[in-house]
Write a structure and sequence with these properties.
single chain; mainly alpha; rod-shaped
Length: 95
């Protein structure tokens, strides 16, 4: 092996060294070099949507569909949440 390496030019030796360094650098993630058992950090949880926000979004979407004359979409939204339709109708009569 030494005979093989001694026949290489300085440029070839440099490239061989860089290649070896790249292999060691990329392989260090797969081996723990005395770091011990490190637990991965948990991902930050996304904010959860509350029921109230869902109702407001449904109401906004329903109103926008009605204003845009998207009657089929409006009717389907009314069928999805029938109890919300009653609440929405009661609100609009009180205003």
């Amino acid at each position: 092996m030494w005979n093989y390496l001694s026949n290489l030019s300085p440029t070839q030796l440099l490239l061989l060294g860089l290649g070896f360094a790249m292999v060691v650098y990329s392989a260090k993630d797969y081996f723990s070099f005395g770091k011990g058992d490190e637990k991965p950090k948990p991902k930050e949880e996304e904010e959860q949507t509350t029921l109230t926000e869902i109702v407001y979004k449904w109401e906004d979407l329903s109103n926008e569909c009605k204003q845009a004359n998207l009657n089929e979409a409006y009717e389907l939204l009314q069928k999805v949440f029938p109890m919300l339709v009653n609440v929405s109708n009661n609100r609009s009569t009180k205003r």
